[in-house]
Amino acid sequence: AQSVAQPEDQVNVAEGNPLTVKCTYSVSGNPYLFWYVQYPNRGLQFLLKYITGDNLVKGSYGFEAEFNKSQTSFHLKKPSALVSDSALYFCAVRDVGNTPLVFGKGTRLSVIA
Amino acid sequence: DAGVIQSPRHEVTEMGQEVTLRCKPISGHDYLFWYRQTMMRGLELLIYFNNNVPIDDSGMPEDRFSAKMPNASFSTLKIQPSEPRDSAVYFCASRSAKYNEGQFFGPGTRLTVL
Question: Contact B48/A46, CB-based, under 8 Å?
Fold first, then answer.
């Protein structure tokens, strides 16, 4: 069965500092990995995905994520955080088949001015 | 495209009443998903459809919950009778089977059962 772990419920970072939101996954085959962001009272918005190819994936709003197969991780990163990045971030995984995404519990990012 | 459309955006009802949530997926998408989000349990998959056929409803919490997809452009999630513990945000999402895409989410319906 597929699963995703986001070990941190909350991440606090100062504006301008780099940020990392952690994600590890478990899947039987090759993973399709995704990051979504949720702003208050909104639905989940797609940020970026890893399907195949380069392990460093770039996405919306300056975010990027690094796929590490040996550590089964897909951490979300941004070189310089903005206050407007404060939101709830979800990591998700599915295998190569047409199965639903399995989501982590989410990590609340708070960027402090 | 307007994206995934959900209605109503907010619903307040009393315990015991029937609640119907509606979803219009993105045109051309083959898969439709219903999720529930609560503080305690996070984002839970309730049921999903492929080409209007329910594939997995193991996430539906009780027989009080039912979902239908009568055609490719419409789905409903019904709760009858509703209970206070059903209070949550319910999301509909859709995606195409043709591309390596994730799921596209609607804005959600915030349900409050008093």
Answer: no
Tell me the pLDDT band of B99, cut-offs 50, 70 and 90: low
What residues of chain B lie within 8 A of the CB of A51, using their CB? Answer: 100
Distance CA B32, CA B42 (A): 19
Closest CA to B112 of B92, B90, B88, B91: B88
Which residues contact residue A49 at a Cβ distance below 8 angstroms, ignoring those fewer than 6 apart?
A: A32, A33, A34, A35, A57, A59, B100, B101, B102
Length of chain B: 114
Residues 6 or more apart from A51 whose CB is under 8 A from it? A32, B100
pLDDT digits over A35-46, tens only?
999 998 889 999
Query: Any CB–CB contact under 8 A between A58 and chain B?
Result: no
